[in-house]
């Protein structure tokens, strides 16, 4: 009888208890850095329908919800899904199908890799990327002589690591119709003995590109999916691709809608007349995984190839100033055109002359406007007085790549001299002016790994831990600033801060699980942090083996 009464009482209590709420996923036993306004921490969170439902502590959340799936973080660290604010995902994918020249320490090694590639692939047109003469004992640009000898009948195009110069052989020049008399504004066909040496800088590279074999939709899709796989392994949940044509943007959209491509993308539209006409007429485009709301413009070239445009001549090449790819007048015209639309203008600017041309064009076009979030991509060398163009009304934002500083520091001062270096790679200075700074890698120019970005921003050292006391440490970021630059500030630069960039209720359940505490681990361990798992929309899209 007592057992029956007890059972009835238990049933009565159970019938009065509120029903548990349903949820799809519980993350527990984690150190969660939410990157909210208070930079608060938690140890558990709940996901439903791809969004964060609640954040708190493990016992209370477990009791409150009926959970379909649980992920035990086992004490590891979770940060908001990492965002690369400036990269070339499609370029990375294509590079995986070409000769990889990254890390070559001599021109002889470049030639060896090209020969080995062709012996295996037997391509009708050999395309490669990644050489950097600054890493060689002989830091002069190579010439086409050796390529002509090795490949007299096969065109060869080898792009420099920054994408702003290429070495081609005579067959490639012949196909493109390039001679010593060819002139193209916005770049240079380098001559020697009144003949092309094989080095082409910036705009004239387009003549070579027009002769490349056609890239099919199947090849493009494979490139995107291969690059996505790498990004997910490194904990990236959103990538800003700095320059895509309409066909690739639409291919990404199609792959995402078919469920084949999970990565979120912020696409900067390449600034061609055809792309401008289409997107300005049709407006911005937004889905949960794709955001098309900016144009990518090139003001100048790169510092490594001396294509960056300087106010005074290069310190190591008197009389040479670089060259504007887009003139100041054209920048003004484009800025006025984009200001009349909802699109952002995101402009590559490296040299101090290019940066001031971009900043002036932005300032003029955005007069009387607020919160347009136009981006200066790279903002690499800026005259001290010009930092004031960045202010906290969110019209002009810096988008920078910390690993450029630690890659370039070996030779940058030779290019521009000690005085101009005071305004070079000045991330903290820009942050103080603009209130935010978006961080990226520019891969495949640099490596994909966002932990290298974090380390370069905070320690200002390369992977050899050089220099011992850091490079121009006055412009180092704190760990909190660096993490914000890779999450909430990058999202803000994309007009996406209300849906991603922090772990907060109602936002997408995008987060990255790390094997070490990024906020507390010894500084020298930062580049060694590994990604354990990557979640997008509450779905585990990568798990380390």
Automatic annotation (TrEMBL):
**Which chain positions lie within coiled-coil regions?**
none
Q: Which CDD domains match?
A: YtcJ_like
GO molecular-function term, one example from the UniProt record: hydrolase activity, acting on carbon-nitrogen (but not peptide) bonds
Arranged from A to Z, the UniProt key words for this protein are:
Hydrolase, Signal
Question: Gene3D superfamilies under this entry?
Answer: 3.10.310.70, Metal-dependent hydrolases, Urease, subunit C, domain 1
So which residues are the signal peptide here? Answer: 1-17
Q: Where is the Amidohydrolase domain?
A: 69-542
Q: Could you identify this protein by its name?
A: Amidohydrolase
Name the lineage: Bacteria, Pseudomonadati, Bacteroidota, Flavobacteriia, Flavobacteriales
């Amino acid at each position: 009888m007592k057992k029956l009464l007890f059972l009835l009482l238990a049933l009565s209590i159970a019938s009065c208890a509120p029903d548990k709420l349903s949820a799809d996923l519980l993350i527990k036993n984690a150190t969660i850095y939410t990157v909210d306004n208070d930079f608060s921490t938690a140890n558990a969170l709940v996901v439903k329908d791809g969004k964060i439902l609640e954040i708190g502590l493990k016992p209370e959340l477990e009791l409150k919800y009926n959970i379909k799936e649980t992920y035990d973080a086992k004490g590891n660290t979770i940060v908001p899904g990492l965002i690369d604010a400036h990269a070339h995902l499609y370029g990375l994918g294509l590079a995986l199908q070409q000769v990889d020249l990254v890390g070559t320490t001599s021109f002889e090694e470049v030639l060896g890799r090209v020969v080995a590639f062709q012996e295996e692939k037997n391509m009708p047109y050999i395309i490669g990327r990644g050489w950097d003469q600054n890493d060689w004992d002989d830091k002069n640009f190579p010439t086409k002589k050796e390529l002509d000898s090795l490949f007299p009948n096969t065109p060869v195009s080898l792009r420099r690591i920054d994408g702003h110069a290429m070495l081609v052989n005579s067959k490639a020049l012949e196909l493109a119709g390039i001679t010593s008399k060819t002139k193209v504004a916005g770049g240079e066909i380098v001559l020697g003995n009144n003949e092309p040496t094989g080095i082409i800088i910036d705009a004239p590279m387009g003549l070579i590109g027009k002769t490349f074999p056609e890239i099919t939709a199947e090849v493009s899709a494979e490139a995107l999916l291969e690059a996505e796989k790498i990004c997910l392994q490194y904990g990236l949940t959103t990538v800003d691709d700095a320059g895509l044509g309409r066909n690739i943007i639409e291919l990404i959209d199609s792959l995402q809608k078919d469920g084949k491509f999970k990565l979120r993308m912020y696409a900067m539209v390449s600034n061609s007349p055809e792309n401008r006409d289409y997107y300005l007429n049709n407006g911005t485009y937004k889905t949960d995984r794709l955001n098309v709301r900016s144009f990518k413009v090139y003001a100048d070239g790169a510092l490594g190839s001396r294509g960056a445009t300087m106010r005074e001549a290069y310190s190591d090449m008197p009389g040479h100033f670089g060259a504007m790819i887009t003139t100041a007048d054209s920048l003004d015209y484009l800025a006025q055109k984009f200001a009349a639309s909802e699109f952002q203008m995101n402009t590559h600017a490296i040299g101090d002359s290019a940066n001031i041309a971009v900043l002036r064009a932005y300032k003029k076009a955005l007069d009387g406007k607020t919160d347009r979030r136009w981006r200066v991509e790279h903002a690499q060398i800026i005259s001290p007085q010009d930092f004031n163009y960045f202010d906290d009304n969110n019209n002009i934002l810096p988008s920078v790549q910390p690993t450029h500083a630690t890659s370039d520091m070996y030779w940058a001062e030779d290019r521009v001299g000690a005085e101009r270096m005071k305004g070079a790679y000045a991330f903290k200075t820009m942050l103080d002016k603009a209130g935010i700074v978006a961080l990226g890698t520019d891969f495949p120019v640099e490596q994909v790994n966002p932990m290298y970005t974090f380390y370069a921003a905070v320690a200002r050292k390369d992977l050899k831990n050089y220099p011992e006391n850091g490079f121009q440490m006055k412009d180092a970021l704190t760990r909190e600033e660096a993490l914000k630059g890779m999450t909430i500030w990058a999202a803000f630069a994309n007009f996406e801060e209300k849906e991603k960039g922090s772990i907060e209720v109602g936002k997408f359940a995008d987060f990255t699980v790390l094997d070490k505490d990024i906020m507390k681990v010894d500084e020298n361990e930062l580049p060694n942090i590994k990604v354990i798992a990557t979640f997008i929309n509450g779905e585990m899209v990568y798990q380390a083996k």
